[in-house]
Amino acid sequence: MVYDCSLCDFSLHVKCAQVLPPVIQSQIHEHPFTLLCKQISFCCDACGRIGSHSPYVCISCNLTVHYRCTSLLRTIKILRHEHLLRHAYFLHESRSEWRNCSICHRDMRASRGCYHCLACDYAAHVRCATRSELLDGRTRDEDDDMKSSEARLDSIIRIVKEIKLGEDTIAAEIEHFSHEHTLIFSNDGKDYKGCDGCGLPVSSPFYSCEGCDFFLHKTCAELPRNKLYPFHQHTLTLLPKSPHSNRVFSCNVCSIYSNGFSYNCESCSFDLDLRCSSISDTLTHQAHEHSLFVFFQDDRKTECCGCGALEKNGVRCPECWYSLDFKCATLPLTAKHSYDDHPLKLTCRDDSDSDKLYCDVCEDKREPYNWFYSCDDCGVTIHPECLLGKYPYIKVGDSHTIDSHPHSLRFVKKTEKYPSCNSCGQPCTDLALECGESECSFIVHWECVALSKS
After folding, report:
1. Looking at CB atoms within 10 Å, which of 47, 62, 145, 340 has the fewest?
2. Which CATH architecture has domain 399-453?
C-alpha cells in the first residue's frame, strides 16, 4: 500500500506519509526545517553523512539534513569528556579542512556537523558522540546519579588556616577526609618520601602530617570526591588510605598494586589508581609528538613502545600507531636512586652502540628502544623496574596484616643482609612484609602474599 501521484511518478509508504511532518522545529537550528519530498542524494549538514531521499531543508540558511538529525539535541554530556558538547554545523576555529574525531580518531571534515566542546579542543562525529553507551545519563541508573549528587555536596577538605603567597591566597593548614590530623602546606620537596595518595615521590607543593609520616601532593589533596571514567559505566568514588583498612588493591586498568587512594565502584569491585585516573581520554607525553588516546581491546594485544610488552589496554597514536601500556604511560618523568645524588630522568631512546647498553643496577643488557632512567652528569642508566622496584606504589613503612601470622607486619625493602622469605625460602631483595615484634624474625615477600590472594 502506497500513496502515489501518477503525474509526477511520486510514491510514499503509508508509514512515511503519516510520520514525516511537513515542517519541523529542531533544537539544533533557529529556523524550522521543511520537508523536501524528493528522491535526491545529499550530504547532511548536521552529521556529515550521505542521504539518498527526502531531506529537510532550511532555505534561509541553505542547510540540508536527515529527518533523524532534526531530533538531535543542542547540547549533550558524554562519559568520555568532562564538559558539555554543543552541536555545530562547522568548526569556526579549525585551521584546516580535516581533523581527527576525538572519539574514533578517524578523519572528520571541519566544515560538517559535529559535537564540540567550547572550553577545549574536543570535537567528535555526531554518530560517535551520540552512541548510547557514551551518553551520560543513559548508562548510569538513578540511584548511582543520586549517590553521586549527594557525595558531591560533602567537601573532602576543610580549610583551617590561609596565608598570602605573593598575589595568591593558599590554604596553609587543612583537614582532609583521609587523615585524622591537620595537614600543613609545604613547598620544600621530599622526593625520598612517597605520596600517600598516588604513591609517587613527594614533590612541591604538598601537604603533610610529619608526626604520622603522611604526605599528599596538593593535586592529590584537591581531587574530586566523585569521578566519571570514560570506560566504566558507573560513577567512581574516591576511597582514602586508611591505617585500619589493611587495603592493598590492584588497579583494574594497569594491574599494578597500590595501597594509596583509589577511585572505586563498589557494585563492580572496580578500582582505579590515581595515576591511571589522570588519563581520562587523551595523553600528551614527552616520548611522542602526537596526542595519545586511550584504547581497550579484547581480541588482540599491542606491543608497548616503552617496554616491549604485549598488552590489551593502553594509549595509542591514531596517526602512526605508537602505543604505550598504562604502566609505562604513568611512569614518573624523574626519580632518584639511593646511590646517586642526582635525579634521574626518564629517557625514551638510546642511540649509543648496542654493545654498550647495560643497566648499572642489574648489569643486564638494555634494549635500545626500551625506556630507561639516566643521569647526564654521571652517565648512569637503569631499567625502570631496577630503579623503582617491582611494586613502586606501595609505601614502605605502612602496616599490614595477613592471616598466616599473628603479629602486625610492615612493608620493607631489604637492601642488605637479604633474609630468606618464610614462604618461598628465597632472599628478600625487593618489597617484603616484616614482623615488627623484636623477638619475631618473620619476613615474607609481598609477591608471595599477593600470589596467595589471587
Report:
1. 62
2. 2-Layer Sandwich (3.30)
CA dihedral 11, 12, 17, 22 (to 10 degrees): -60
Q: Decide if 2-71 and 282-329 have a common fold.
A: yes
Specify the higher pLDDT residue, 334 or 17: 334
pLDDT band, residue 279 (cuts 50/70/90): confident
DSSP string, 124-182: E-HHHHT-TTTBTTTSS-HHHHHHHHHHHHS-SEEEEEEEEETTEEEEEEEEETT-SS-
Query: What does the pLDDT look like over 393-414, one tens digit per residue?
Result: 998 888 898 988 999 999 998 7
b/e sequence 269-293, b meaning 16+ C-beta within 10 Å: ebbbbbbbbebbbbbebebbeebbb
Task: Find, among 380, 434, 383, 425, the residue nearest to 407 by Cα.
Answer: 434
Q: What share of the chain is helix, strand, coil (3-state, %, to 5)?
A: 15, 30, 55
Fold of 2-71: Wheat Germ Agglutinin (Isolectin 2); domain 1 (3.30.60)
Closest CA to 373 of 338, 339, 341, 336: 336
In the chain, what are the domain boundaries? 2-71, 75-129, 157-221, 226-277, 282-329, 331-392, 399-453
* pTM check: above 0.70: yes
pLDDT in tens, 56-83: 999 888 899 999 999 999 999 887 787 8
In angstroms, rounded to a whole number, what is the distance separating the alpha carbons of residues 17 and 454? 62
Q: Does domain 282-329 have CATH number 3.30.60?
A: yes
